[in-house]
Amino acid sequence: MESGLYKDYIEYNLENSARILARRFHDSLVFVIKPSKMIFYSFSIYKNFLPFTEDGIPFIGHMPGSGNDVEGLSHLVHLYNNAKHRLASDSTGLDSSSATITLVGFSKGCVVLNQMMFEMFSSCGTIKNDIKDFAQRLNSVYWLDSGHVGDRNAWLTDDAILSAMVHKGLEIHAHVTPYQVRDSQRKWIGKEEKKFVEKLKKLNGNVFEGRHFFDEPGSIDNHFKTLKVF
């Protein structure tokens, strides 16, 4: 970010984003996951969680073992468990045995959340114990101004997945700005977000929608500010 198109937004780089989230979740341990690749030093690619084209378009909805070697949920759980073990070995005195988990995705990072929900609630057969423990601890999920350069799947709209999320009792948060949901070149994002919220409400889900800066034109500035105002 420091040398790319968005160098003016260094206050939202990886380290500073961690600080912003730490202030938002002040009584929590915050882990920020770095993208596996950046295009033009600006656009994040998360091939460590799901497949992407070379142009940065994500493929959401595959199941591990279906011809693709990416196992996003398993990878996330391993990262989480390794972080816990490191904390324990550092003798910090922190007890994570009863800790709940909150997942937060921002912008294109939200496609990782979508894939995690798909894998978690579409799983067939036996679920590994470490993944089961992670799923049981998962308490809330935040989508912050989701969007990408493709033409679908910025927001989950699959009825079965949404129903499973509600059945689990997840706190579901959707925060949006005009930058994504009112983009005239990507009208599908706004339509998907509307379906996401409306379907969850019809299912009596614990869903909160935050709409920010709708008295202003969509801008990349306000897009990034979502990290501070959600």
**What is the helix/strand order?**
HEEHEHHEHEHHEH
Q: What is the level 1 CATH name?
A: Alpha Beta
Radius of gyration: 17 Å
**Beta-strand segment tally:** 6
The strands making up the biggest β-sheet line up spatially as 3-4-5-6
Q: Flag low-confidence runs.
A: none
Global structural class: alpha/beta
Q: What are the defining features of this structure?
A:
globular; alpha/beta; 230 residues; UPF0565 protein C2orf69 homolog isoform X2; 8 helices; Rossmann fold; two-stranded antiparallel ribbon; C2orf69_mit; 4-stranded parallel beta sheet
Give an account of the 3D structure.
The protein has 230 residues and is of the alpha/beta class. It has one domain: Rossmann fold (3-Layer(aba) Sandwich). Helices cover 39% and strands 13% of the residues. It has eight helices and six strands. The strands form two sheets. It has a four-stranded parallel β-sheet. The chain has a two-stranded antiparallel sheet with strand order 1-2. Strand 1 and strand 2 form a beta hairpin.
